[in-house]
Write a structure and sequence with these properties.
Number of strands of chain A: 8
Number of helices of chain B: 16
Number of strands of chain B: 9
Oligomer: heterodimer
Structural class of chain A: alpha/beta
Largest sheet of chain B: 9 strands, mixed
Strand content of chain B: 5-15%
Distance between the termini of chain B: 12 Å
Largest sheet of chain A: 8 strands, mixed
Structural class of chain B: alpha/beta
Radius of gyration of chain A: 21 Å
Strand order of the largest sheet of chain A: 3-4-2-5-1-6-7-8
Strand content of chain A: 15-25%
CATH class of chain A: Alpha Beta
Radius of gyration of chain B: 25 Å
Helix content of chain A: 40-55%
Helix content of chain B: 40-55%
Shape of chain B: elongated
Chain lengths: ~290, ~375
Amino acid sequence: MALPRLIFVTGKGGTGKSTVAAALATAISRRRPVTVADLERRRSVARIIGVDLNGAESAAVTDNLEIAALTPRAELEAFIEGIVPLKAISSRMLRSRTFGYVSAALPGLEAFLMMERLRLMAGRAALEDRYAVIDAPATGGAIELLSVARGVKRIASRGTLNRLAGTLEEFLSDADRFGVILTVRPEGLALRETLDAAAELRGRLGVRCIAAVLNGVAEELFTDAEITKVRALGEPARLAARRREGAKNAARARRELEAADLEVVELPMLFSAALGREELATLADSFAAGTIMG
Amino acid sequence: MKARAFDPGAHRLVICLGPGGVGKTTLSAAIALNAAIRGRSVDVMTVDPAPRLLDALGLEGDATQPRDVALAGLGARRGGRLRALKLDPKQTFDGLIELYAPSAAARDAILSNRIYQNLSNALAGVADYMAMERLLELHRDATTGVIVLDTPPAQEAIDFLDAPRRMLDLLGSRALSLLGASRGLLRGPLAMFDFAARAVLAAFDRLTGLHLLADVQAFVRGFEGMYGGFAERAAEAQALVRGEDSLVVVVTTAEAERVAQAREFVAALEELGFRVGAVAVNRVMAPIPGAAELERAEIPAALKRKLMRNLADFAALKRRESLSIEELRETLPLKTPLVIAPDLGREPRTLRDLAEIGGSLRYA
């Protein structure tokens, strides 16, 4: 597949990051094994896929689809246990309030270890010929997270963390291992933020932007002339105008995203009374039909 | 029959909580504006508003002090006043340090400390804690009748309300005060504890290359004299948000995902002893009319079919939304009212839009 081993899904709040991550993972799972992971405490992907992790770190949904939850605390513990040679000392360290304080005062540390975990996931995925999809924080938080290696280099001028930060930077700029998908709704506000984020990701961070996913695109029904013709019809006319407006916004969004050299994947607005597995499969079809999966 | 209007402006303090992307800031502004139009004197504090909302509220640039919002043309009653401000956590924290530092040297030592800079820039809880701090400042102004508080996006309901306690836990932890205490004062078991804490941190420093020990000690020493002031204010803030005159509003949208989150929010708040004043479902669509009238309209058949189809599509969306709201209502505690905020069919971008939302909040 043309996708990197690890796909990091971000976007403005409310643009459907979790739905997009779940749909993409579903599409990939039809061809290769894939893990879809929640980066925060939201458990959204699990809810959308309809699986309750019940506190477990991961669970199999189908033969090819696994769902996982990554928490900063668990990463911190794994890291400390990894670098501290004696179990007695590492557990003492983790229990101490001083240490809790230090890790809280250096929030970059937890973010850094989370990114380190993603790097390891991508490495393992390459070895096993599988993929990982990450339901990441909203754009601002995501960019902060991806910038963390730099920050760590600044405060740790040598030592384990400094070395790891260098490796992490290499990982993020490796288009075969890491790439970002930006979710966007066909609205002016979200669009601006997406274009800014893409510029920052590519420019400052040297990260690959796989695609912008335009989420909730309704099939076009009306022309402007038709909207004018039915204007006197009250509510049905207002809803028709709203649909027309949505179609125009989507077209404009597509143009601007493409002008910024972003691959665009459109996901349809689903006019159904429920959003379940069937609808997720429909959204997955849109990914399968596009070019990003190669 | 028209449902009863939701007018939280009768409370001294209205706190809007909720996950990101549900329109907390918009709703906070709408509630505040509506109360002002009804003749109350209102302050609204926003967190990270979208550019259009900044524009509508006149909050461009450095708007960390309350600014008057012009209510002309909105039919506001006499005495109605709205002031808006943006939260700047870092600046607020710096201000607190200024206030409590025993000397200029102590203040500068803290402000330039690496631990402090990380604390004040990046720790999520700091934004929450500083919102509380600003709240106390606004509360002290007796000319203000109502304070509406937008809050940082939360993963969990308690992130905001519990922030002062967690910050104090952190700043006042015993290990921390021991680390900072001068040598020689500590004897016996306490000295042992101090030694262990130092050893742990020193080992961590060596392994990671962070060299934090000196910074932590300097920070703690600098903070010692200020702890009392911070603790007092945190207690005051806690009492205020838990007070009879405060209303906690959990904001959500009707998407199944968000509804599940809102439910968890409410349960967590109840468990902590907070009264949830209302759950507000934002961006709720207007009812979709039946097709009967459209059936009779004299327009080309093909166009009519498309209008029918469009109506059916929106009706399906509306049905999904109603099911979701119904499920929320059924699973909320009986005493927690559900409030509906309308979808304008466009992004709210003017004061008039906000007034329209604020004026049409209804109990479901």
